[in-house]
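Give me the fold.
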Amino acid sequence: LKADWREEYRKSPAYAGHNFLRLKVFDHPSHVGSPALQAHGHSRTAMARFCRAVLDHAPLGSFRKRFFPQEPTQCPECHVLQDRAHVLLKCKRYRRWWELRGEFEFLQRVSAYRELNGFLTVNESAFSFADAP
């Protein structure tokens, strides 16, 4: 089953979904031994934020624009649309140790998976309801 999932994920961008953050290194699903869950100290809150970032299903302005257009969508700090790329790459509210132009450049890095985990550890409110516009 795991091999089938990996193969389908690799072959079909539609299978992963339109907004899925396609990290070069991504762990196959496991409900008991996920390295992603271990990276977050088995914290359900931290893992939820990781999933929100990867799935682009976070309480961000871009999500609100699609599903709740009457809700605020701008980053309260930068006054631009708050989307995943803004949070990961540009927002002044968060600490990061990379200087990149876009999500594609971030995804090309072999260390993107580890860096996303590190980003979420250092920025405890990123991709949380506390940081919604």
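The radius of gyration is 15 Å.
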